[in-house]
Structure formats: structure tokens, C-alpha cells
Write a structure and sequence with these properties.
210 residues; alpha/beta; Rossmann fold; Arc Repressor Mutant, subunit A; five-stranded parallel beta sheet; 10 helices
């Protein structure tokens, strides 16, 4: 059973999402504090140890602005981004700023809990950032230069068509390289591949021509 001290700060202007996500998390043993906006969250003087589940598209301040404001205030709690299909580029940007993961709406309970557990894992192993970077760099060594090119394009938030244009290959070939690199990295989602790329600080100029 998840310890009740594990708090999730849920930030979403959609009341239905707040209710459903709160129910999922509470029935899984988490303590949930829900906020209708990032502004409300930022008014909190003290945030106890926990994870922040943050929507991208909100009025007044969007998720990226809230994330940056938290960082400016010295809040280093793990952030998981919630995004609609059209907001994936913003979610990628959020991961560049240090977000643990992003999940696309509508999400299943297992996906939500997996992201939250990854966030708490970061808290539990806060001192392992250097080790994670080294592990990620070793994993990237398994990729071909072209697969690294494709991963770099994905890390910039580019769709397959744009990556293909930049590399002089077809979108279908990009899809093949993308599938191959995800298999080699043993990840099942784009966010998993991006987490490794950002941990390794994959340099834009690192990949070699193919």
C-alpha cells in the first residue's frame, strides 16, 4: 500500500479531470491536493514533499509558465505534465525543463500511476542524477548515428515529417528508425525515449552523418 504521506499536487482547470484523477490517486493510497490553476498552486507558501501533476493548457498561466515559476521559487518537486494530443510539443519542452514525464489525455489509471511512481522514484533517488546521466549515455551507445539523429529530432519536438526533411529521408524511414531506437532503449513510449535523451544531455551536434 502506498504510504499516505505521499502527496500529489494536482493542477488542472478542468473540474472533471480533477475529480477523476483525484479519485484514481486517492483509491491508490495517495494524498491529493487539487488546484484549479497554477496561480493557486503558486500561492502556497510551503509545498511538502510530493509530486506535481500539472496540466499544460490553462488560463492565466499555462503549465510551462507554472513550471518555470516553480523553478524560480526554488521548488524542485518532480513534475508530471498532462497534455492533450495537440500539446505534445509543449510537453516535450516541459521535459527539457526537467519534467519527469508527460501523459496524454484521456489517460488510463495504470499510465497515471506509472508516471507518479516515476516521480516519487526521483525523490527517493535524488542523489542519483549523475548516475542516471551515465546510464543514459551508455544506453545511447547502442544506437546507430542515424537513430541518434532521429532521437535528437524528437527531443526538439519535431514530427516525423520535419525530421525526415531535415535528414533527407522519408517519414516512413523516420518511423522505422524511431521504432528501432525505442526497441534498443527498451521503452514503450516517446516520453521514455526523451527521458533517456535528456538525461544523457544528447548534444544536437553529436550525431554523425549517415
Amino acid at each position: 500500500m502506498t504510504p499516505p504521506s505521499r502527496t500529489v499536487y494536482l493542477v488542472d482547470d478542468d473540474d472533471a479531470i480533477r475529480r477523476s484523477a483525484s479519485f484514481m490517486l486517492k483509491t491508490s493510497g495517495f494524498t491529493v491536493r487539487a488546484f484549479a490553476s497554477g496561480v493557486e498552486l503558486l500561492k502556497e507558501r510551503v509545498l511538502m514533499e510530493g509530486c506535481i501533476l500539472l496540466d499544460v493548457r490553462m488560463p492565466i498561466m499555462d503549465g510551462l509558465e507554472v513550471q518555470q515559476a516553480l523553478r524560480a521559487n526554488g521548488v524542485t518537486l518532480p513534475v508530471i505534465i498532462m497534455t492533450g494530443h495537440g500539446d505534445v510539443d509543449a510537453a516535450v519542452q516541459a521535459m527539457k525543463y526537467g519534467a519527469v514525464d508527460f501523459i496524454e489525455k484521456p489517460f488510463e489509471k495504470a499510465v497515471l500511476l506509472s508516471a507518479i511512481e516515476e516521480g516519487f522514484s526521483r525523490l527517493d533517488h535524488a542523489g542519483r542524477s549523475h548516475a542516471r546521466a551515465q546510464e543514459a549515455q551508455v544506453m545511447l551507445e547502442a544506437l546507430t548515428p542515424r537513430e541518434k539523429d532521429v532521437l535528437q529530432g524528437l527531443a526538439r519536438g519535431h514530427p516525423n515529417k520535419t525530421i525526415g526533411f531535415d535528414l533527407g529521408i522519408s517519414p516512413r524511414t523516420v518511423e522505422i528508425h524511431r521504432a528501432n531506437l525505442m526497441t534498443k532503449l527498451e521503452v514503450a513510449s516517446l516520453s521514455g525515449a526523451l527521458r533517456i535523451a535528456f538525461a544523457a544531455e544528447l548534444d544536437e551536434d553529436e550525431a554523425e552523418p549517415c
